[in-house]
Amino acid sequence: MPQANSVVVLDFETTGLSPNLGDRAIEIGAVKLVDGEIVDSFQQLMNPGFRVSSFIENYTGITNNMLRMAPSCDEVMASFSDFISDENLIAHNASFDKRFLDAELERINRSYSGEFACSLLVARRLIQDAPSHKLGELVRYKNIENNGVFHRALADAQMTARLWLQMIADIEHFGIIKPSFELMQTISKTAKGQVNQLLAKSRG
Q: How many helices (DSSP H) and strands (DSSP E) are in the chain?
């Protein structure tokens, strides 16, 4: 059974909220975890073929000038498809990143066989007393080392990976050795009040 600590953690920066409305990816960042260690990373800006709004420039720090020199989405996503291979995938607010991953890969007739888990949904259940479950807030709340850079893809992927490993460690303190990827998915769908019960059951 695949382990929760051997995954690809990814993050997209995009021109907007929905590929269905014509939005495209402008940066992908990812780290590959094997047995809880970062063994590889991927980062690339990509040119969506049109100018991005000043809001997105300010929010991400990614300017139209930077994108003008970047390779096309198709070229970058082909490389990224090779990078993720058949690994399971993690993202913070995974439904957002999955939408863009699916849309961008569909354009180049590529797909992936791994499954997604959402660190945001897992955190809502395992870190219920955090003031907010935004990535930056959770990183501060759990005292996770960071360089203060947010809304750039690789930095966010690295933060998400550290948060993910911290949550695995929290589960291991509960007496569950090497939690599976499937257990993390189950936690993400479990009612908050039932989580301790689930963990107690998983221990046996």
A: 9, 5
